[in-house]
Design brief:
Strands 2-3-1-4 form a 4-stranded antiparallel sheet. The chain is an alpha+beta fold. A hairpin with a 2-residue loop joins strand 2 and strand 3. The protein is 34% helix and 23% strand.
């Protein structure tokens, strides 16, 4: 499963920029990976883990703006269509990562 967080936060004042940075840095600290600007995703092992991840995001929400979360299965996520551009990741997520002891 994946938890995907979409957000649009105001950055007009210094306080709003500070809240935006705090929210975004919190997502990164919790293990979210940026898919594109203001769209972050994180793997979850099961629905219970996804629920606790969503609770953590809710606990650090800023006072203004729009934040949306979506949970999708890996099968649904793998069917995502790239209309323009391509997927870039520094994370090895294929059999190159396999370690045989």
């Amino acid at each position: 499963m994946r938890v995907i967080v979409f957000f649009d936060l105001p950055v007009g004042t210094t306080a709003e920029r500070r809240e935006y940075a705090r929210f975004r840095k919190g997502l990164v600290k919790d293990g979210f990976l940026m898919m594109q600007e203001s769209v972050y995703s994180k793997l979850a092992l099961n629905p219970t883990a996804a629920s606790s991840i969503m609770d953590a995001v809710r606990s650090r929400r800023p006072s203004k703006g729009l934040i949306q979360m979506l949970v999708v299965t890996e099968k649904q996520f793998s069917r995502m269509e790239f209309v323009l551009g391509e997927y870039h990741s520094e994370i090895i997520d294929d059999d190159e990562r396999l370690v045989i002891l």
